[in-house]
């Protein structure tokens, strides 16, 4: 009997990058620890709970490294380079997260803080660590790009996820630039995530993104976590292929995934411009609002056309002998 294989198999668990997996598990443990610390420690740093930043970084780091471990598992050619780069990502992120937790325990700001020689040294080490993460992720991206996988959609997902994550990481460097206020009245802080307002103030629950001004953490976060969003979007398409007949065709999945990637990229550009304009994420206006509506309508229309235009097409998949 012959059946149709709709998707390529996932990489074997043993092929996932082990140091990154270990780091991800450690971040889960630290997230629990940070949550417990937040309950018993009421101190605040720059207007937020002292343990909120360690909690966010632990959760974000867990998702980032878990997905990167999976993406490295897709690599055949250039696997040795990708493995070594992944190990350095785990090491560099470990250095940064340890420093963040130590400064949180001291009730002091870990980012942008150069008030003393010690704080300057800590901030320099953190900056060097995240720069190394960016360079190593670039090497992983190069390995993924030059290594075509067995499934076109999965290959596209891995490639674009890493590239968009690189862009998201790079957007974080915008926060290291001194603000006009800091240049006029230096008080030991260089850099900020807020635009048009001082850091701190009212923000969204958990993430803390400003509700009254621009916030560069938003494009940084969205871009960096393309590493999860794009592969998860593909996984959703592969699961939906069981109940939506057009998606059983890998060519249609590839086209829908392309729309998702374009939509995500346009959203990243829009929220970056919004932050630089000093607009809050919850108060879009003008061109930003128009762009957001256009992106949503365009994505919905494109996906609808793809699904209905090719509904009568037979899935173009390789037969698998299941005897």
From TrEMBL:
Coiled coil segments of this chain: none
Keywords, sorted A to Z: Membrane, Transmembrane, Transmembrane helix
Chain ranges passing through the membrane: 20-40, 55-73, 85-106, 121-144, 156-177, 222-244, 256-277, 289-308
Region forming the signal peptide: none
Full protein name: Uncharacterized protein
Species per Swiss-Prot/TrEMBL record: Microbacterium caowuchunii
């Amino acid at each position: 009997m012959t059946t149709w294989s709709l998707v390529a198999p996932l990489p074997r668990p043993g092929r996932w990058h082990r140091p990154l997996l270990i780091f991800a598990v450690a971040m889960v443990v630290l997230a629990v620890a940070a949550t417990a610390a937040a309950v018993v420690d009421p101190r605040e740093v720059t207007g937020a709970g002292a343990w909120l930043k360690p909690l966010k970084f632990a959760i974000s780091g867990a998702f980032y490294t878990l997905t990167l471990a999976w993406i490295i598992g897709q690599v055949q050619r250039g696997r040795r380079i990708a493995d070594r780069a992944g190990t350095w990502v785990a090491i560099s992120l470990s250095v940064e997260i340890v420093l963040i937790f130590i400064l949180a325990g001291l009730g002091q700001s870990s980012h942008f803080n150069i008030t003393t020689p010690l704080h300057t040294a800590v901030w320099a080490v953190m900056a060097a660590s995240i720069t190394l993460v960016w360079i190593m992720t670039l090497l992983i991206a190069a390995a993924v790009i030059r290594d075509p996988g067995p499934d076109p959609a999965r290959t596209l997902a891995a490639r674009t996820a890493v590239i968009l994550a690189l862009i998201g990481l790079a957007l974080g460097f915008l926060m290291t630039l001194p603000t006009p206020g800091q240049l006029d009245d230096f008080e030991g802080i260089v850099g900020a995530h807020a635009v048009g307002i001082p850091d701190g103030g009212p923000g969204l629950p958990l993430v803390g993104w400003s509700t009254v001004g621009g916030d560069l953490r938003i494009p940084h976060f969205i871009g960096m976590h393309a590493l999860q969003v794009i592969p998860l979007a593909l996984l959703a398409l592969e699961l939906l292929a069981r109940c939506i007949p057009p998606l059983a065709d890998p060519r249609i999945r590839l086209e829908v995934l392309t729309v998702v990637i374009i939509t995500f990229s346009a959203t990243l550009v829009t929220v970056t411009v919004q932050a630089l304009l000093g607009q809050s994420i919850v108060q879009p206006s003008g061109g930003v609002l128009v762009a957001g509506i256009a992106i949503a309508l365009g994505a919905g229309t494109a996906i609808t056309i793809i699904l209905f235009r090719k509904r009568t097409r037979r899935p173009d998949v390789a037969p698998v002998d299941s005897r």
